[in-house]
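Why does residue order matter? Because the sequence determines the fold. Keep that principle in mind as you read this record.
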Amino acid sequence: MIFRTVAVMTQTLRRAAVWPVLSLMVISPVLAEVISSATPVVALLNPALLLSYVLILYGLPVLIIREVAVRRRVGPLGLWCLGLIYGLYNEGLLSLDLFHPFGHSGDGYAGYGVVGGLLVPFTIFIAFWHGLFSVALPVLLVERLFPKQAGRAWLPTWLVVTIAALCLVMAVLAYFGVGRDTPQPVSDAHLAVVMIVGLALWFCAGWLPRTPVLGPGRPKAPVRSFVVGALLFAAILTPSILADEGVAWGWQPSYFAIVAIAAAWAIGRVPVTSHATAVICVMGAGAAHAVATASFGVMGGDPLLVASAAVLGAAFVVVAVRSRTGYGQ
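Structure:
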């Protein structure tokens, strides 16, 4: 039985897109952790830490979101919306950063906008952030690296369902303190909120416009697409800066609602565009984020952070430039 199971799994991997899968699983945590300065580059050289990021925190969950997005044919907007669910998974179930007093004791979101123990402004901000930088950016980047595999399912359905179930079980166990050195008291109500909001986002991803349809070809306005991506990052970052300044938080839910509606309207009204255009746009967002992270590194006297952010930013620009001529799928 064991040998038969191993044989089936080996055959499945041979049929699957092994290199895109492995690339996404590694690239997603490295990009998100380095560009956000959450984990130093040196720490990611620790095999145990990197493996936990690849298997639990980022790699497998992001891969499953990508597979679900492809099967549901939700389009770029739907992919980002499903990425918001990943933000709840990461920050709400695994790290508990959405809940006061566990989350963010050292930045502007500490005790900022707490409602029923939930850090409302941070929850909205980090969900939008993860949707773009932990999901959309690495997914589109890997599909740029493997254009023949873009828009196609990489794993069989049974494997997607199995991995998704395992990730959810592990996340719920982690939420209740299983495997933690010091279990933290959390509320069943908080878990219910995360689950309900996640379910609502699941349905919302299907309701959003499935346009633009991404296909092969040259981007029509690569510079504009790059700038739009940079401005999108600025729009997401602005509330975080104002939170650091102590500005009252009540406006933030309305602000993000306006940003989401404007982005959905602007993106959804384009019926068809090239895959290269979408890549250039998210590369613009990534490059702008890298510049901001490098600036924080300069102000904080952290040369390693400056160097790592500069390398990432340069890589994003190179990918954007090389995408100007378009590519097939």
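The two ends are 39 Å apart (CA to CA).
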